[in-house]
Design a protein that fits this description.
The protein is of the alpha/beta class. The protein has two domains: 6-218, Spore Coat Polysaccharide Biosynthesis Protein SpsA, Chain A, CATH 3.90.550.60; 229-292. Helix content is 39%, strand content 22%. The chain has helices at residues 16-26, 47-54, 68-82, 101-111, 175-181, 193-203, 229-245, 250-269, 277-292; strands spanning 6-12, 34-40, 59-62, 87-92, 95-97, 115-124, 131-133, 136-138, 144-146, 161-162, 170-174, 207-218. Helix 1 links the parallel strand 1 and strand 2. Helix 7 packs parallel to helix 9. It is globular and about 65 Å long. The termini are far apart.
Length: 300
């Protein structure tokens, strides 16, 4: 039996132990036609050397700088294209995976050629039976949400189902689709780029699917997760850019900016939010930079 080729891209920056743990879970019972690439975004913790020593079969590409999620993964997407891979999987370094999850994704994709991108069922690593993401939805008014977020898994997502987009911690994409729609938009740097990528695939006529039999556990986001001002900046700026890029309309864009202005006012005026000054400043800078067309790496 011939198995389609899959290239896994694991982007890392200063997460050596997480990367090694991810590789251990991925290679415990590896998919038969697999190439794994660790993309190292200028780590200072010796990740590249540690991976080469522990897993000689894993390709390590040092990108030379902190390129962010989008541009860093684009280095790997070019590599996968040159290797003529059938599928590519963008996988966060802070995930632990069920060893069979790639096989489930491949099987679903091979049976439905209209599928452009697929994703697993993502659980919180700290709460292994609590769902972090069962795919993403985009509402009519352009709000984006993770389906099933923080729900206890009771089998409510037992069968595969379509998704508007899938979590960036694990995106399984058909390489022919990547060749058609292009790579990730590096101007996002990180956050919203996976939504943009999936929306571009859907607009090109492809569908997205969540495959619940494929399971992973993500460490990066917990229920008590508290974002940093840097995340506040990138999330706000990039969401506005997503709306503008996909022509959501002036009404939607103005509504989102009004919501941001209300948050700025609350963080400035209300006494109980006085400790949010760093977030207030980050949000204000995000709005200014969006209006200026200043994207890419964050200014802080």
């Amino acid at each position: 039996m011939t198995h389609p080729s899959v290239c896994v891209l694991i982007l890392n920056r200063d997460r050596r132990d997480d990367t090694l743990a991810c590789l251990a879970s991925l290679l415990r019972r590896p998919y038969p036609n697999l190439e794994v690439v660790v993309l190292d975004n200028a780590s200072s913790d010796g990740t590249a050397a540690a991976v080469r020593a522990a897993y000689p079969s894993v390709h390590v590409i040092e990108t030379g700088g902190n390129l962010g999620y989008a541009a860093g993964n684009n280095v790997g997407l070019t590599w996968a294209h040159d290797r003529a891979a059938d599928y590519v999987l963008l996988l966060n370094e802070d995930t632990i995976v069920d060893p069979d999850f790639i096989g489930h994704l491949v099987a679903a994709a091979e049976h439905q050629p209209e599928l452009g991108f697929l994703g697993p069922l993502v659980y919180h690593h700290s709460e292994p039976h609590v769902i972090q993401s069962a795919g993403g939805t985009t509402t009519a008014d352009w709000r984006t949400h993770h389906r099933g977020q923080n729900e206890l898994d009771t089998g409510q997502y037992a069968q595969p189902f379509e998704a508007d987009w899938v979590s960036g911690c694990a995106i399984f994409m058909r390489m022919s689709v990547v060749n058609h729609i292009g790579t990730l938009d590096a101007e996002f740097f990180i956050y919203s780029e996976e939504v943009d990528w999936c929306l571009r695939a859907r607009r090109a006529g492809f569908k997205g699917l969540v495959v619940p039999a494929a399971r992973i556990w993500h460490k990066g986001v917990r229920r008590d997760y508290s974002p940093s001002p840097r995340v506040t900046y990138l999330s706000a700026r990039n969401h506005l850019r997503l709306l503008h890029k996909h022509r959501a309309g002036a009404r939607v864009l103005l509504r989102e900016m009004a919501r941001d202005f209300r948050a700025l006012a609350s963080w400035t005026i209300r006494p109980r939010w006085r400790d949010q000054r760093a977030h207030r400043n980050a949000l204000a800078r995000a709005m200014v930079d969006f209006c200026r067309g200043s994207f890419g790496p964050p200014p802080f």
